[in-house]
Design brief:
Elements (H helix, E strand, L loop, with lengths): L1 E2 L4 E3 L6 E9 L1 H4 L9 E12 L3 E15 L6 E16 L10 E4 L5 E3 L1 H11 L13 H22 L6 H11 L1
Parallel strand pairs: 1-3, 6-7
Antiparallel strand pairs: 2-8, 3-4, 4-5, 5-6
């Protein structure tokens, strides 16, 4: 089964067994979430649903890239993402599960929307730092950032006076000297 947009899986009527779904997450999908770090991309998900009598077991395998912002030059950057995750869904009329790895659905549920989990799996798979390879950053922007930083340093020196130390740093230094 292939789906370009809908991440809803209707499981009512499915007999116990294994079912496969393919999804393509693109700009339209990512625009539904307000996260500047994760704005666009193309990520291909393969989802395997193992339907059991009182439980659904999902295995997500994904690979692709997302557009983000370079931490160094603030330019657009393609960040590769990939991973494999599992989600266990049980049917119960209790409100919450004590196990954070288990999602509970009411007994009468007939479908589940996987969008939030798929989004979170992509977001968590992104590296902490998004930086262009050496030499590929926007040189104009790097120059601008460097100049702005130098101006801030000069302003701070003028405000404190030559040779004076920011009192916050002096307090920290006193703590370290003890």
């Amino acid at each position: 089964m292939t789906s370009e947009n809908s991440t809803i899986v209707q499981f009512s009527g499915l007999k116990p067994g294994r079912y496969e779904y393919d999804y393509v997450l693109d700009k339209t999908f990512f625009e539904g979430y307000e996260n500047e770090e994760l704005r666009d991309g193309k990520v291909i998900f393969k989802v395997i649903l193992e339907r059991r009598e009182r439980m659904l077991l999902f295995t997500f395998t994904f690979e692709g890239s997302v557009k983000s912002v370079c931490d160094r030059c603030l330019g657009d950057i393609e960040v590769p993402v990939s991973g494999e995750e599992m989600l266990c869904v049980k049917f119960s009329d209790t409100e919450t599960s004590e196990d954070e790895d288990v999602v509970l659905l009411p007994e009468g549920a007939y479908q589940i929307d996987l969008a939030q989990w798929m989004y979170e799996y992509v977001a968590v798979s992104m590296p902490m730092q998004h930086v262009h390879p050496e030499g590929q950053c926007d040189e104009e922007m790097l120059q601008y950032i460097t100049e702005a930083h130098e101006e801030d340093d000069e302003t701070e020196v003028r405000e404190l006076g030559e040779g004076e130390t920011d009192p916050r740093w002096a307090a920290l230094k006193n703590l370290l000297d003890k």
